[in-house]
Amino acid sequence: MSEAPLIELRNVGKVYDGGSKTAAVSELSLEFRSGEFSAIAGPSGSGKTTLLNIIGTIDRPTHGEVRYAGRRVSHLGREEAADFRLRSLGFVFQSNNLIPVLTALENVEYPLILQEVPKEERRRRSLSALAWVGLEAFASRRPDHLSGGQQQRVAVARAIVHRPMVVLADEPTANLDSKTAASLLDVMEALNRDHGVTFIFSSHDSAVLDRARRTVRIRDGRLAP
User: Fold this and answer.
1) Which residues of 7-29 are buried (b: 16+ CB within 10 A; e: fewer)?
2) Angle at 43 between CA 42 and CA 48, to 5 degrees
3) 27/216 Cα distance (integer angstroms)
4) Contact, 89 vs 164, CB < 8 A?
5) What is the side-by-side strand order in the sheet with 21-32?
6) Strand bridging mode 21-32 / 63-68
């Protein structure tokens, strides 16, 4: 018997009404399974970021539904969706969104503080997450004393520290040079291989697409061949 999907999208569509209605995503049905290292690819304006935001419950679909492990999440209220993201999802963005006045360790701890994890446990888990991305020795440094690649690694550690079901990464290599991007992808591949972290990327970077074990291509908001 095949494994049940971790994420299911059924006939998902997203229409923006800015005077004239524009369909960013149209009638998409997709499944992702636990342990995937997958990419959503497409040209600028294809709808890939909108699709990733719908998967991440940041955007609500105009119609259709999204389920995680059988639970329908696409129509959660704002507070319920925020709590679901906090406890079940990790995010890595093109801009790392680190808090400048906090150290690397404190940035990684932040989701656990929101979850009210006890101090000793969150410190232990955060140091472990930094070790997984090769930055345990940089725990006390603030973002402005880290390179761009190191900042993105801290962002990855923050995304995985609460043991999410999936990490969603939107153009995570866009601001990095090719060598630094390759190093970051090495880290994420190792997390996927050694710790079973599920990754879904949105990207048009060939470096990301070459690493993905599955690529979902979309164009004009629809699945493309």
Assistant:
1) bbbbebbbeeeeeeeebbbbebe
2) 45
3) 15
4) yes
5) 21-32, 7-17, 63-68, 71-72
6) unpaired
Residues in a beta bridge with 99 = none
- Nearest to 170, CA basis, from 203, 128, 139: 203
Average pLDDT of the residues of the chain? 93
For the record, the structure tokens of 65 come out as: 């539904």
Chain segment 180-221, per-residue pLDDT in tens: 999 999 999 999 999 999 999 999 899 999 999 999 999 988
The domain made up of 7-223 has a fold known as: Rossmann fold (3.40.50)
For the chain, the domains span 7-223
> How many other β-carbons are positioned within 10 Å of the β-carbon of residue 222?
16
Which is nearest to 167 in space by CA: 6, 43, 1?
6
Statement: residue 1 has pLDDT above 80: no
Structure tokens at 97: 């969104």
> Which residues does 136 contact at the CB level (< 8 Å), separation at least 6?
127, 130
Contacts of residue 62, Cβ cutoff 8 Å, sequence gap at least 6: 13, 14, 15
Would you state the structure tokens that stand for residue 16, as one six-digit string?
């923006």
